[in-house]
Amino acid sequence: MAEIVQRGRNNFPSGRHIARGVVWVVVGVVVLVLASTLLGSVKKTPRDRIGISYGGGPVEGQHFQRIVQPGSNLFVNGFADKLYLYPVTQRNYIISKRSDEGDVQGEDSVTAPSRDRIPIEFQAAVYFKLNTDKLRKFHEQIGLKYAAYTESGWDRMLNNSFRQQIEFAFQREARKYDASDIYANTDVLNRIQQEVGTTLKENVNDVLGDEYFCGPTFVPGRGCPQFTFTIKGIDVPDGVRAAFESNRTSEIQVRTKENEVAQRAQEAEAIRQLNEALAAAGQNYVLLKAIESGKIDFWVIPDGQGVTLQTPTRGAQPQ
Predict the structure, then answer these.
(1) Phi, psi of 258 (to 5 degrees)
(2) H helix or E strand, kind and range, residue 231
(3) Confidence bin at 263 (pLDDT 50/70/90)
(4) Which letter does DSSP use for residue 302 in this model?
(5) Angle, to 10 degrees, between the axis of helix 283-293 and the axis of helix 238-281?
(6) Sequential DSSP letters for 60-97
(7) Quick check: 122 and 183 in contact, CB under 8 A?
(8) What is the β-pairing status of strands 91-95 and 119-130?
(9) Interior CA angle at 187 toward 181 and 188, to 5°?
(10) Rg (Cα) of the chain, in Å, rounded?
(11) What is the pLDDT of residue 40?
(12) Higher pLDDT residue, 274 or 239?
């Protein structure tokens, strides 16, 4: 019996073996952590993104390191350092009633009252680029606040800056014109588009604190052009639209009647002038028309000579 118990005890690992196994497990975990951390610090930037690197390891504070241009090769960013990515391609903010087109889910528009207090719905689009010449300041002042290096943070930043300024600009410009002009006059709509586009860039950057956004033709180091802004569509209340269309139909009908009256006046004037000419011509005109029609025959008689001619019977065959 003692021999069986002793034999069973020998089947269990000793404390030394257990400690050695624990050490190897810990070493393996540390190696995996270090490897994943090292691999995680190897970065590169896509062709449509610019990177900005900040130190952030366990033994150092957050500090700016460098800006990494788009499409870079693989590089070691640093142990636990952070690389923030921002877009360098043309971006847009679209307000549209098409749910698959706008920046806001579902149907979207900006409502602004006209001078005659009729609500006008505007759909619009603005095209721009991030001013990468001021990337560090943008990241530290705006990017970190909104987490704009993420898609959701970028969208939230645009809604809080671009959207409010677009609404303000439309409300200011729409009050200058009556709804009928905004709805039917292309020149008025073009003026509104130009005014909103001209002031939008200045207003957006004033709100953000610096010239962080430029037009879509922006090239680093070459100035900051204006945004491209377009009005995609406008709508008025259904009742107002029906009234506009009715008025337009009436105007067309009035112009048609005026054209008809003018045409009749011209015809009457032509008849009057013809009557005057006929009165002046008298019987000579009647004789001329009879001769032209072949209803009478005539001969040229020498002046001062008496000649008797017998007219042939009309329709008789010559002998």
Answers:
(1) -60, -40
(2) strand 228-235
(3) confident
(4) P
(5) 100
(6) S--EEEEEE-TTPPPEE--TT-EEEEEE-S-EEEEE-S
(7) no
(8) antiparallel
(9) 40
(10) 46
(11) 47
(12) 239
The more confidently predicted of residues 86 and 16 is: 86
Question: CA-to-CA distance for 151 and 136, rounded, in angstroms?
Answer: 19
Q: CB of 127 within 8 A of CB of 216?
A: yes
Token pair, residue 126, equals 């603005």
Arithmetic mean of pLDDT, 281-292 = 63
Query: What is the model's pLDDT at position 35?
Result: 45
SS3 207: helix
pLDDT tens digit sequence for 99-126: 777 777 778 899 999 999 999 999 999 9
Strands 119-130 and 213-214: antiparallel
Question: Which has more pLDDT, 293 or 123?
Answer: 123
Residues 221-233: what's their mean pLDDT?
93
Q: What would the two tokens of residue 18 be?
A: 């257990």
pLDDT higher than threshold 60 for residue 4: no
Beta partners for residue 188, in sequence order: none
How many CB atoms sit inside 10 A of residue 8's CB? 9
User: What SS3 state is found at 245?
Assistant: helix
Across 278-288, b (16+ Cβ under 10 Å) vs e yields eeeeeeeeeee
Q: How does DSSP classify residue 57?
A: -
pLDDT for the residue numbered 305: 57
> How far is the CA of 4 from the CAs of 1, 8, 10, 12, 15, in angstroms?
5, 6, 10, 14, 21
pLDDT of residue 88: 95
CB proximity list for 17: less than 8 A, separation 6 or greater: none
Which DSSP string corresponds to 130-188? E-GGGHHHHIIIIIHHHTTTSHHHHHHHHIIIIIHHHHHHHHHHHTTS-HHHHHH-HHH
| Alpha carbon distances (Å) from 219 to 51, 53, 189 | 17, 22, 30
